[in-house]
Amino acid sequence: MSSYSKKEVGDLVDGRLPFETVHRMLSMPKDQERFSLYLEILQERVSWPDKIILARGPHLYIVQDKDSKKWVNKCSCGHVMGEYNENWKLYANIFVRNTEALLNELQPKLMAPHHEWQELREFICPSCGILHDVEAPVPWYPIINEFEPDIDTFYKEWVKIPLPERAN
Amino acid sequence: MNNLAHLVEVMGIDAGGTMTDTFFVRADGEFVVGKAQSNPNDEASAVMESSGDALHLWGRKLEEVYPELVTAVYSGTAMLNRVVQRKGMKVGLIVNRGMEDFHRMGRGIQCYLGYSLEDRLHLNTHRYDEPLVPAERTVGVTERVDCHGDIVIPLREKEAVEATTRLLDQGAQAIAIVFLHAHKNGKHERRVAEIAREILARRGSNIPVFTSVDYYPTRKESHRSNTTILEAYAAEPSRKTLLGISDRMRGVGAKYDLRVMASHGGTISWKAKELARTLVSGPIGGVIGSKFLGEALGYDNIACSDIGGTSFDMALITKGEFAIQKDPNMARLLVSLPLVAMDSVGAGAGSFVRVDPYSQSIKLGPDSAGYRVGCCWEEGGIDTVTVSDCHVVLGYLNPDNFLGGALKLNVERARQAIKTQVADPLGLTVEKAAGGVIEILDQSLRGHLRSMINAKGYNPLDFVCFSYGGAGPVHTYGYTEGLGFKDVIIPAWAAGFSAFGCATAEFEYRYDKSVDIAVPPSASDGTKTASCVTLQQAWDELAEKVIEEFRINGFKPEDVILKPGFSMQYLGQLNDLEIDSPLGTVSSVEDWNRIVEAFDETYARVYARAARSPELGFGITGAIMRGIVATKKPKVPMEPEEGPTPPRDSELGSRPFYQRGVWKIAKLYSMEALRAGNEIAGPAVIESPATTLVVPEGWSTRLDSHRLFHLREV
Fold first, then answer.
1. Tens digit of pLDDT for each residue in B469-488?
2. Residue of B130, B351, B367 to mutate, testing the A interface (most A Cβ within 10 Å of its Cβ)
3. Is residue A98 part of a domain?
4. Chain A partners within 8 Å of B355 (Cβ)
5. Any chain B CB within 8 A of the CB of A19?
6. Which domain holds residue A22?
7. Which of B404, B445, B587, B624 could form a disulfide with B565 if both were Cys (CB 3.0 to 4.6 A apart)?
8. Chain B within 8 Å of A23 (Cβ-Cβ)?
9. Which CATH architecture has domain B86-233?
10. What is the total count of domains within chain A?
11. Residues B465, B471, B475, CA angle at the centre, nearest 5°?
12. Shortest CA gap B228–chain A (Å)
């Protein structure tokens, strides 16, 4: 089966591969070692020692805390945003665009949604200020919990690698 | 073979991405094929080198043969590559103000054209290619013509001046003008072109200006604009290449006008105004060649099949005619050019073989090693098993005579690769695994061939199957087995059949124009007469264009045979049928009834008599004009029959050959040394430098007096 070097997977993460290669990678059955390589690459790019379990986004990870072995959500800057099974958004700074003026900063007049029907919520890391996510619900809607990954099954049955210790 | 009494008359050129093939035919029907490495920077040299390689076989020189030639036809992939790699001219585009983004947005289907079915469903593989013209070189001009051709907003000429000036300031090398509904009324496009040319003249520039109405007056602005832009973007640079080839040929004494294979199945001059239609031409050659052979030998229903390194191309000829697709796609762009209808699947001799880790099954393609053959050719740098590797291991291909011995194949390397990548993971022996691969490929090709014929409502029993392409004859028995074709025919020159086909094509221009004619069942005679007038006007307009093209090549209008046609449908139906008009001109109610009758007959033939629906009324969607001038064509080879026993010197010994789980001994023959009338029973392998014909046990083949092999189950 196809296999890829660590450099190729690194280039994939950075979006530097030509599309033909990306297309081939997408279309072929996934190489077994891809996820481990991917984790290695992510780990090399962060400054903290905690082990990355899964990426939640380009700058947000589920990690195993080095000392307590608890799984937590962590920004690439090191800021912790709750335990892995909590909604990390509740630990972020939230900037809400819910007036016409605020929405028109992004989209021209009459091309933005009406603020009584839809608002934009920007979730920002309280330490480094990076924008992790934006959600666009109706204004009264609670904060959305996007994704509760079943990490146990993913590790044991999909990628078949040992599940790291978890204290929580 | 060196018979100076016979002149060399016809030449076909097939300039692919890696090899340039030339094909020379002598007056007595003898032919030679030459090969040379393609050279994108100097195609003329590659053509000359390839010609030299071919003529060397007859012991003749370029300077002797070129003056004898009466016709030469070129087909190549250079223009296509220019589009695929986005290396065309910097085109400036003028469109309706407010519609500046439609070309850049493209049509949704363009993001997955050319994909396998799996990827079509796999949305994250979809991708939009870079537009041919970027946003900054697209300018809007206010005007509007409605769908009836009426002017709703007059043209703002001042904006046209500003637009041209802006494009020129940005360094545009050509200007394309495409307005909505211009095919119904081209006044505004032509006026903008006039304004642009005035400005160009004032600035001392002579870059070309293209209007969609003068090139492709058809509905669907996405198709129309893509095609008009392609004309500027890719075709103009190709004209220079063709001029270079033509000049070089003249330098060695050529007296003919070089012609180029076009997508509609005819050949056109390199001087033709509409050159974009030569964008895709390679695989069409085989279909044209099949039609030509069919006409000469009396087959009017033919299933054409062509296997090369990367794909399997199929086409049907019914009642002596191939079908034309009107808005096909080329290079992942929808275009409004007529294209000989073909079905292609991404499975060929170079297809990669892999084991799917989830289903533990063998998966072929969709990608392939192409000219790099497979693991068996170490220098090719391929590490994944290909179909050719399986052939080499099973004794189907001669490792020492691949491309006439130009490539030495390493059987052991192929065997090792199959063992580790396919056989071991599946727990099979190498032979079983390789045999399985061949069987899967044969089955899938057979399925495609069967469904193409059945889907069009035909039965293989009524067809003769032609098999060609370098890899075709290796698989012919496999993909025709059990389909019940009347006959299966493999030309001895299978590898050069596309180039041969190009040389047999008519010198033919074809122009299309959209028209909207609707005649409900209750229509008065007045409506029918008016419809005839509309159709006739469109024909007149197109005929003028056709005759003009021939005039550029020095033909007189009276030399041109005009063949009008039209696309008709029952009102309310979505698909139309293309009909050759039974009348040269139309003007009266009787004429209208006559063309309706022709449509009804065709409809009954293509679908079913009972499906005809004249109660819905009739609509004409397009007018077609084809023009032909007489040209010299190759002759079908003709040899006297010499009895069924192959001559001694054709026997090359024997080789172990694996078929259905058993090793057998196959007798080997040299294709060139076989004589007309010879019969060979399987297991046998007939070898020539460019192709290999496999005759397994239970099959036999006979070479007829036209150097065509007939393959049949016994």
1. 877 888 999 999 999 999 99
2. B367
3. no
4. 1
5. yes
6. 1-45
7. B624
8. yes
9. 3-Layer(aba) Sandwich (3.40)
10. 1
11. 55
12. 27
Q: Phi and psi of B489, rounded to 5°?
A: -120, 130
Q: Do B367 and A24 touch (CB under 8 A)?
A: yes
Which residues, given as ranges, of chain B have pLDDT below 70?
1-5, 17-18, 28-29, 282
Tokens of B317: 């000829």
CA angle B477, B478, B480 (to 5 degrees): 65
B119 and A27 within 8 Å at the Cβ level: the answer is: yes
DSSP B386: B
* Structure confidence by residue, pLDDT tens digits, B332-373: 899 998 999 888 887 888 889 988 877 788 888 777 887 788
Whether A29 and chain B come into contact, CB under 8 Å, resolves to: yes
Interchain CB distance below 8 Å, A1 and B354: yes
Nearest Cα to Cα of residue B314 among B443, B467, B456: B467
CA distance A151 to B491: 61
- A148, part of any domain: no
Contacts of B692 (CB under 8 A, 6+ apart): B396, B397, B398, B473, B474, B685, B686
The b-or-e profile of B399-412 (16+ CB within 10 A means b, else e) is: bebbbeeebebbee
CA distance A112 to B506: 58
Look up residue B1 and give its two tokens: 């073979």
C-alpha–C-alpha distance, residues A68 and A65, integer Å: 6
Cβ-Cβ contacts under 8 Å for B14 (sequence gap 6 or more): B20, B21, B22, B23, B75, B76, B282, B285, B496, B498, B499, B502
Residues in chain B whose Cβ is within 8 Å of chain A:
116, 118-119, 122, 124-125, 127, 354-358, 366-367
What is the reported pLDDT for B1?
A: 42
> Which residues of chain B make contact with A19, given a CB cutoff of 8 A?
127
Q: Which helix (H) or strand (E) holds B166?
A: helix B157-169
Q: Which CATH number fits domain B507-629: 3.40.50, 3.40.1280, 3.30.1490, 2.60.120?
A: 3.30.1490
**What confidence tens digit (pLDDT) does each residue in B626-662 have?**
999 888 787 787 889 999 999 999 999 999 989 888 8
The minimum CA-CA distance between A13 and chain B, rounded to whole Å, is: 16
CATH topology of domain B8-82+239-278: Nucleotidyltransferase; domain 5 (3.30.420)
DSSP symbols for B79-103: HHHHHHTT-S--EEEEEETT-TTHH
Contact B684, B664 (CB under 8 A): no
* A85 within some domain: no
Beta strand spans in B400-525 (E): 464-468, 487-491, 507-519
d(CA B550, CA B556): 7
pLDDT in tens, chain A (168 residues): 567 888 889 998 888 988 888 888 888 888 888 999 999 999 999 999 999 999 999 999 999 999 999 999 999 999 999 999 999 999 999 999 999 999 999 999 889 999 999 999 999 999 999 999 999 999 999 999 988 999 999 999 999 999 999 998
| H or E segment to which residue B44 belongs | helix B43-56
pTM (predicted TM-score): 0.83
Q: Is residue A142 part of a domain?
A: no
Domain-wise residue ranges, chain B: 8-82+239-278, 86-233, 507-629
DSSP codes joined into one string, B206-231? ---EEEHHHH---S-HHHHHHHHHHI
For B136: left if phi > 0, alpha if psi spans -120 to 50, otherwise beta; the answer is alpha
Q: What pLDDT sits at residue B162?
A: 97
User: Is the distance from CB of B565 to CB of B548 less than 8 angstroms?
Assistant: no
DSSP state of B277: G
- Its ipTM equals 0.78
Cβ atoms of B228 and B176 within 8 Å: the answer is: yes
